[in-house]
Amino acid sequence: MGGVFAPRPSQGPHKLRECLPICIVLRERLKYALTNKECMQICMERCVKIDGKVRTDHNFPAGFMDVIELEKSGDRFRLLFDTKGRFVLHRINREEAQYKLCRINKVYISQNKIPVAVTHDGRTLRYPDPDVKVNDCVKVDIATGKMSDIIKFELGCMVMLTRGRNAGRIGTLMHIERHDGSFSIVTVQDSKGNSFATRLGNVFAISSDNAPQITLPKGRGIKKTILQERAEAEARGEL
């Protein structure tokens, strides 16, 4: 992006620092618009759907795991991270655009004695399955908002990191170190055998075995060293 100012995302389901406004997606990533005004016009013509809902606010925050749909052009994307921790628009098919994975951040009993689970994207799921615990992930049907599968957060599950230095890396959960009153630390190992540690809050379960519930972006979440990246660039003739 050129210039000094950037569009500030509106308040919405994702945090200010963990989202991408629709106008950045349309203008910088998809190149469907040249100016902010054109992004506004595209949104006001009700062309953009996020998680199955038409959004006319061009600064609406789209975050991790959101499904962005542009019916006129037949595009469907899921917002994921690449191994450098940057948002990528990962193209998906119609079947996969029907659902998303949501991490459970809080489970409690509401005022009227109704059990409630709160997800990472601000959804409140009433009467969730009693097996659902904090840090688990659930598969949510976008059309109905109901949860179907549960991905338990346990050793051996496949996880993706959503924050920190290793954001975007994917691996198997090897070990959980509980620290009461401080941050619990988890150890993750990717499919190439590299281990790394991060805080428990940065981890997002995407599968209970080695077959992820969503298709993965290019690189499949394996971070390359600078030397590997250089060798590949040389092989492509870019250096």
Q: What does this protein look like?
A:
The protein is mostly beta strands. The protein has helices at residues 22-29, 36-44, 226-236, and strands at 19-21, 48-50, 53-54, 61-63, 67-70, 75-81, 87-91, 99-109, 115-119, 124-126, 137-141, 147-151, 158-161, 170-177, 185-189, 195-199, 203-207. The strands form four sheets. It has a five-stranded antiparallel beta sheet, covered by helices on one side. A five-stranded antiparallel beta sheet has the order 10-9-8-11-12, with no helix packed on it. A five-stranded antiparallel beta sheet has the order 16-15-14-13-17, with no helix packed on it. A hairpin with a 4-residue loop joins strand 9 (115-119) and strand 10 (124-126). The mean pLDDT is 93.
Number of helices: 3
Strand ordering within the main sheet:
3-2-5-6-7
Gyration radius from CA atoms, angstroms: 19 Å
Encode the helix/strand succession as letters.
EHHEEEEEEEEEEEEEEEEH
- Strand percentage, roughly? 25-35%
**Alpha-carbon distance between the two ends:** 24 Å
Low-pLDDT segments, ≥5 res = none
Tally the beta strands: 17
* Mean pLDDT level: 93
| Sheet having the most strands | 5 strands, antiparallel
How does the overall form come out from the CA principal axes?
Answer: globular
- Helical content stands at 10-25%
State the secondary-structure class. Answer: mainly beta
